Amino acid sequence: MDDALAFDVFDRQCPSRGTLEHVTGRWGSLTLGALYESGSRFNELRRRVDGVSEKMLSQTLHALERDGLVHREAQPTNPPRVDYELTPLGREVAERLLGLIRLVEGRMPEVLDARGRYDATRGSERGGRGGR
């Protein structure tokens, strides 16, 4: 049996589910995308991933490193320098994520139109039921 078929992300006990959550969560996908452009130091990465807190970025990097997607290299300098880069697996995952990111960015006019239609419909429904 092919090892890839032994995992089922839809099974709550499957370890692939945790990795998928790390990769597709807001900070995981943005961190992988930012690292795809080039390796980075922590603060460079934090500036690139606008809005992420230091704590969340640190947790995200640890999870991605544990999953084998990010390589962390500490330089023995004073002050210490830590660089992060994607592993070959991380690059492959990031390429696929960036395809999805580009698709979403490119189709945002349609998304915004759909949101406007949805909100207009929902607003008229609420207005017709006493503001509920």
TrEMBL record:
<keyword id="KW-0804">Transcription</keyword>
<protein>
    <submittedName>
        <fullName>DNA-binding transcriptional regulator, HxlR family</fullName>
    </submittedName>
</protein>
<keyword id="KW-0805">Transcription regulation</keyword>
<dbReference type="InterPro" id="IPR036388">
    <property type="entry name" value="WH-like_DNA-bd_sf"/>
</dbReference>
<dbReference type="Pfam" id="PF01638">
    <property type="entry name" value="HxlR"/>
</dbReference>
<feature type="domain" description="HTH hxlR-type">
    <location>
        <begin position="14"/>
        <end position="112"/>
    </location>
</feature>
<dbReference type="InterPro" id="IPR036390">
    <property type="entry name" value="WH_DNA-bd_sf"/>
</dbReference>
<dbReference type="GO" id="GO:0003677">
    <property type="term" value="F:DNA binding"/>
</dbReference>
<dbReference type="InterPro" id="IPR002577">
    <property type="entry name" value="HTH_HxlR"/>
</dbReference>
<keyword id="KW-0238">DNA-binding</keyword>
